[in-house]
Design goal:
This protein is of the alpha+beta class and 389 residues long. 36% of the residues lie in helices and 25% in strands.
Length: 389
């Protein structure tokens, strides 16, 4: 779950990470009022979208008065802002952050992210330079790195040493280390997968201020943080995926014509690969979580039935102790009854309650083809989708 800049800064302030004074505005008049309340000559009006590289796309405007803030907000609000990270369609600007400018002595890039190779938190730090996003994506950014424990443990002095390695004096390096330590605590306690400060400014007064902030929270841990779950921006996420998640389904819409149902991410990905190897095109990826009940599964199947491109449904299920085969079959039947649509089903189902599930499916009188293994099921589904069976 990615947060807007203003939301990320609100969270960081709880961890004593300084940010510039600012207010969110939904209208040009609100932007002007925010500028007047800040009472400074150096101001920035920043489009709030869930993508980086906004300044290069004109999404960050430097202004010097309330009237300038109003004019900048009027140009940004309602606009589709296209950056290097949004795709060609861009994201709609629904709010702006009006923020006081900061006098910078030096600027740095700092990020914390999960390093899957070492099962640690990797800190990247270095001088702030232009086009950091592109250099990071290309792997050409030259940063100092530090690996920190996931439980919050640190060795004495290692954070200050990181500050010295990026070119700071001993005194400034100590303050830099304090900021990184607070970011580390925030990362662990929020179950974040990314915290990025770009830039972290060393002010002329000697303090550090996060001039920009990006936080991504692990979706799988949101249940532990109800206070952050409400920060999700529903208008800027895929609504189909969001509805699926609310029903214990991981779902991604695709462009093919073979609907796919599997219980397990690995099984689902393997099914997609086998369909493509057989010459077919998946209409979706679906992973039924073990916590899903039959009504949740019915919602997920219903999303496939609502897709007019889907011509056949490939069900590849392994029933385990937490989710028996008949639970999936019951969800399948409920979805078909609700939809009223007739679609051929290719079935490869095995495991807990397999025989009972197949008996129930036969009683539901749905058009199905039983297959003994995944390869046979994938080939059969492709043949049906292509009108060859």
């Amino acid at each position: 779950m990615q947060l807007h800049e203003f939301q990320a800064k609100d969270l960081l302030r709880h961890y004593q990470v300084d940010t510039p004074p600012g207010q969110v505005a939904l209208t040009p008049d609100e932007a002007a009022a925010a500028a007047r309340q800040l009472g400074v000559e150096s101001l920035f009006v920043k489009a709030q979208i869930l993508a980086g590289d906004r300044a290069a796309a004109g999404g960050v405007r430097a202004v010097r008065s309330p009237s300038g803030a109003r004019a900048a907000a009027a140009e940004l609000l309602g606009r589709q802002l296209v950056t290097s990270q949004t795709g060609a369609g861009g994201f709609p600007v629904k709010r702006v952050l009006v923020e006081a400018g900061i006098e910078a002595a030096q600027s740095f890039y700092v990020s914390l992210r999960v390093d899957p190779h070492s099962a640690s938190i990797a800190v990247l730090a270095g001088p702030h330079r232009a086009s950091i996003e592109q250099r990071l994506a290309a792997g050409t950014a030259d940063f100092q790195t530090l690996k920190l424990g996931i439980a919050g443990e640190r060795r004495p002095g290692e954070l200050a040493e990181l500050g010295r390695r990026v070119g700071l004096s001993d005194e400034a390096a100590s303050r830099f280390g304090t900021v990184v330590g607070r970011l580390h605590r925030a990362f662990v306690e929020l179950d974040a997968s990314l915290i990025e400060i770009n830039p972290l400014i060393l002010t002329t007064a000697g303090g550090f201020v996060a001039a920009d902030a990006k936080i991504v929270i692990d979706d799988n841990a949101v249940f532990r943080h109800p206070e952050t779950a409400q920060l999700r921006s529903d208008d800027e996420v895929d609504q189909i995926q969001l509805q699926a998640q609310q029903h214990q389904i991981n779902y991604v819409q695709m462009d093919g014509n073979i609907g796919i149902i599997a219980n397990g991410a690995g099984l689902g990905l393997a099914t997609l690969d086998m369909v493509r190897a057989a010459g077919g095109e998946p209409a979706n990826f679906m992973d039924i979580r073990t916590t899903a009940k039959s009504l949740d599964i019915a919602h997920g199947v219903g999303m496939i039935l609502d897709n007019p491109r889907a011509k056949v449904l490939l069900v590849n299920v392994f029933g385990g102790g937490m989710q028996a085969c008949d639970t999936v079959v019951d969800g399948l039947a409920i979805a078909f009854r609700r939809s009223g649509r007739v679609m051929p089903i290719v079935l490869r189902i095995t495991g807990n309650n397999e025989a009972f599930a197949k008996m129930r499916l036969a009683n539901f009188n749905l058009p199905k083809t039983d297959c003994a293994d995944m390869g046979q099921a994938a080939a059969r589904a492709v043949a049906i989708a292509q009108g060859k069976a």
